[in-house]
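Ex. 9. Protein: LON peptidase substrate-binding domain-containing protein.
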Amino acid sequence: MTTVRLPLFPLNSVLFPGLVLPLNIFEERYRAMMRALLKTPEDEPRRFAVVAIRDGHEVAPSAPGMPDPTARPERGPAAGFGPDPARAFHGVGCVADAATIRERADGTFEVLATGTTRVRLLSVDSSGPFLTAELQELTEEPGDEAGALAQGVLRSFRQYQKRLAGARERSLSTGAELPDEPSVVSYLVAAAMVLDTPTKQRLLQAPDTSSRLRDELKLLRSETAIIRSLPSLPAQDLTRAPTSFN
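Predicted structure tokens for LON peptidase substrate-binding domain-containing protein:
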């Protein structure tokens, strides 16, 4: 079992391998994390782990009286996550490699990272200025009939995109060629679909690529049928990951 200890970055969203993650860092615990990552030699990856929050808050209260007028704001690396932070997070996350960490004049950071490898959360340490975690790296097994399933998912995903564009009364403009490698397909579709965090988390921690693709095929067919019955949906760019304010 290969384990690694990395800084831990909790989010109210799920990061998948291969997907880009832009971050706007302003909380002190995450600023301390970025300062530590900047000390990493330039020829080594600046890695941290992203986990989706099961229970808690992405941003701790930053002023007295919020949200409880009688309570003092929480401080420290585990603020907002309870006495046992590990219980506040989903058990499988994704390692992120920070290609860009840019410090602004006010001490906040602009970060651009990419998801790389899935990891299982083994333990969380809150004794330092930011959370760290012991993690087990998870291999991506293909499973049975991954290639055929990937082709089916791609066909259904194109129909899903068309239905979604039509429901939003906008044109579908995607000049980029979709990949055909099964695991890449599975992660791209999981990230691009409009799904709640528990469903995305389920896709992230699927036991193998084929299982993830089978789940996505069912979801795509179901969601496409639902969209077909809707007159319109509010405009939203679904292919861009939102900036997370931490």
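Check your answer against this statement. The helical segments are 28-38, 146-167, 182-192, 197-204, 209-228.
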